[in-house]
Amino acid sequence: MNKTQTTGEQGTRNKTKGSGEIERFEMYIDGQWKQSASGRWFDTKNPFTGEVWAQLPHADETDVDLTVRAAHEAFTSGPWASMTASDRGLLLYRLGDVIAANAAYLAELEVKDNGKLMVEMLGQTRYLPRWCQYYGGLADKVEGSVTPIDKAGMLHYITHEPIGVVAAITPWNSPLLLTMWKVAPALAAGNTVVVKPSEFASASMLGLAKLFDEAGFPKGVFNVITGFGQDTGRALVEHPLVQRIAFTGSDIGGAKISESAARHFKRVTLELGGKSPHIVFPDADMEAAVKGVISGIFAAGGQTCMAGSRLLLHSSIHDEFLEKLVARMKQARLGDPNDPNTDVGPMATEPQLEKVLKYIEIAKSEGATCLMGGTRAQRPECGNGWFVEPTIFSNVTNDMRIAQEEVFGPILSVIKFDTEEEAIQIANDTPYGLAAGFWSQDLQRAISLPKRLKAGTVWVNAYRVVSYMAPFGGMKNSGLGRENGISAIHDYLEQKSVFIKGKSEISNPFTLQ
Ligand code: NAD
Question: Around Cβ 145, how many Cβ atoms within 10 Å?
Answer without folding.
Answer: 9
